[in-house]
Amino acid sequence: MSLSPLHQTGITAEQSSEALFITFNVKPGQHKQIRLALKRSPEVISNTQSVFKSANLHAVIGIGNEYWSQLSLETPKQLTGFQHTDLKQAPDTPVDLILHIRSDRRDITSILAQKLYQLFSDSVSLVEEVSCFKYLDSRDLTGFVDGTENPEGEHRKEVALVGNEDPSFCGGSYLHLQKFIHSLHSWEQLPVDQQESIFGRSKTDNIEFSSDKKSPHAHTKRTSLKNAQGESLEILRQSMPFATLTESGLMFASYCRTPDNFNKMLNSMLKGDTEGHTDHLMKYTQAVTGQAFFVPSLLWFTQL
Ligand code: HEM
């Protein structure tokens, strides 16, 4: 699959040292202006990337599932809303647009965010801006390395990008975003062996427990799923921690060529397996947002 010239590079880029997740709603009657701003955005992104070549700067612009139909007559085949598995544990909080900007330099991320905001600002209202950072050696704030089992190399594209199954939207990606606020005080009261059992991995050296030693409630057990043919269901996670003095947690971001994999994993975490084994990580964190977006290819923007 040779999709690289077409896809937004922020979908598959390797980890950066920091990121901004910015969500907007479109003001009434502003669709024409939004189309124009969207059309201009890829050039603003690529110009900024070429000025700051060494900053590892990448961006993604995604369109919320509900707003999509107002922008385009043709809809990605599998685009639906954030699933309603459990509204208490996984609230559904739709928004119209997302900017996911990341780089290895806070100043450069901010420069691009400002430039893109200038394009959109008169037509949108800001919903939320969350500033994230790489914590230690890519750990979540619970202290566990996050992203180890992510797909690698060219396989990232196979997992994250829509292919010929939906030719009009080839090179696009389904993005799911959840803001999780951690109860770090309770988590830190837990002995390390219990924390490790909850993840199914060791804490300091990040070794996976063998299958027979994993609790059915372990996060990695609940999210390692296979299809009927025995193939692993995969997503590309681009999650990152955030922290203020009063609120800290993880911006969980999943990119995939189908929304099914994320939906099945979330279901397996919250509803559990046939015997009702749920993900015990969820006792120590609470999702406060849940959004589904489609991230179109660069070609789509030129056709606006
Ligand atoms: C694995 C953290 C939510 C899907 C992991 C790992 C950590 C982690 C530390 C183990 C290392 C790794 O392979 O990355 C978290 C935290 C979450 C969260 C702190 C929320 C607070 C989610 C959600 C999903 C998900 C909502 C999908 C619906 C996965 C998958 C793996 C994984 C697919 C790899 C499992 C494997 O193959 O071993 N997560 N995660 N995670 N997580 Fe999460």
Describe it.
- With about 300 residues, this protein is of the alpha+beta class.
- The protein has one domain (about 20-75, about 85-300): Alpha-Beta Plaits, CATH 3.30.70.100.
- The chain has 9 helices and 10 strands.
- The protein has helices at about 30-50, 65-70, 105-120, 155-160, 185-190, 190-200, 220-225, 260-270, 300, and strands spanning about 20-25, 60-65, 95-105, 125-135, 175-180, 235, 240-245, 250-255, 285, 290-295.
- Strands 1, 2, 3, 4, 5, 6, 7, 8, 9 and 10 form a 10-stranded antiparallel beta sheet that branches.
- Strand 7 (about 240-245) and strand 8 form a beta hairpin.
- Helix 1 (about 30-50) packs antiparallel against helix 3 (about 105-120).
- The longest helix has 21 residues, at about 30-50.
- Protoporphyrin IX containing FE binds near residues 149, 201 and 266.
- Protoporphyrin IX containing FE binds near residues 145, 178, 220 and 254.
- Pfam families: Dyp_perox_C, Dyp_perox_N.
- Belongs to the DyP-type peroxidase family.
- GO terms for molecular function: peroxidase activity.
- Keywords: Iron, Metal-binding, Oxidoreductase, Peroxidase.
- This is Dyp-type peroxidase.
Brief sketch in words of this structure:
The chain is of the alpha+beta class and 304 residues long. The chain has a single domain, classed as 2-Layer Sandwich (Alpha-Beta Plaits). It is 28% helix and 22% strand.
